[in-house]
Amino acid sequence: MARIFITGSSDGIGQAAAKILADQGHSVVLHARNADRASSTERAVPNAEAKLAEAANASGNGTFDAIIHNAGIGYGATSSQEITADGILAVFAVNNACATATMAVTGRCGTRQGHTPTEIASRMM
């Protein structure tokens, strides 16, 4: 089974992925933006290996076979926010910074030959 680090796993898609992967027997390391969200995630995914309130702590947790970059922000489908040029740049900056910072602190994905970091996103906005 794989060892998987999931950013943004405190709710939504990230939490659902964490539950499914942990239930399948994978070793899942959770991530949330703060301690309160990390605690609620730990309750939702009790069989997770560990929880991190900050992605920077991932570097002390060994290597991962997979990293799922799920942390980020966006304009929701039901959002009443007006989409502006500044807003688009802010969303883009946060979402790209999340993935870049995670890769930097985790030393990329694993150290074994054949591992290729892959970014998947449903949308950038």
Structure, explained:
The protein is α/β, with parallel strands linked by helices and about 120 residues long. The chain has a single domain (about 5-105), classed as Rossmann fold. It contains three helices and four strands, in the order βαβαββα. A four-stranded parallel sheet has the order 3-2-1-4, covered by helices on one side. α1 links the parallel β1 and β2 (about 25-30). It is globular and about 45 Å long. The relative contact order is 0.18. Keywords: Oxidoreductase. Pfam families: adh_short. This is Oxidoreductase. Belongs to the short-chain dehydrogenases/reductases (SDR) family.
What would the keywords be for this entry?
single chain; 125 residues; Rossmann fold
Please state the structural category: alpha/beta
Regarding CATH, which class? Alpha Beta
Count of discrete structural domains:
1
Low-confidence stretches are none
Percentage of residues in strands: 5-15%
Q: Termini distance?
A: 33 Å
User: How many strands appear in the DSSP assignment?
Assistant: 4
Please name the CATH topology.
Rossmann fold
CATH superfamily: NAD(P)-binding Rossmann-like Domain
Order of helices and strands: EHEHEEH
Assign the CATH architecture.
Answer: 3-Layer(aba) Sandwich
Helix fraction by DSSP (H/I, runs of at least 4) = 25-40%
Give the spatial strand order of the biggest sheet.
Answer: 3-2-1-4
Biggest sheet features: 4 strands, parallel
Shape: globular
Radius of gyration, CA atoms, in whole angstroms: 15 Å
Strand-helix topology:
Blueprint: E1 3-6, H1 12-23, E2 27-31, H2 35-44, E3 50-52, E4 66-68, H3 85-106
Parallel strand pairs: 1-2, 1-4, 2-3
